[in-house]
Amino acid sequence: MRGLSAVLQSDRTSYYSGVFLASVWGIFAYAHILAFLHNGDISLLMFCLSETLTAGFYLIRSAPRTVSILPIDWLVAIGGTIAPLFLRPAPWGVMPSKSKHVPRRVGRQVNKVMCSGLACLALL
User: Considering the chain, what is the average pLDDT of its residues?
Assistant: First the structure.
């Protein structure tokens, strides 16, 4: 277990996870910006901004003092950080009947992500 913890805490693992996240984010942003240019739906840009904040805070984070080696912790971290970047815009949307509420709700999400990210940066 000690060797796995050392690998997970290494600078190389941190660097490559950042490169992977940046690559997936680039594809995500490209797809959402193209969809916005095609149909003009502002919620696509807002969702892109929300995920940009999450990815940005991940990339500028400080080095962790300890790293969990429990698989469930890694699944939750990957699921919460990287999995949303695999979402792609669709012409029918998630819930077409509720699409008018999406900008307001995504706006709230962006606000909460910014507040929590800035609070964490203030602790550094």
Answer: 78
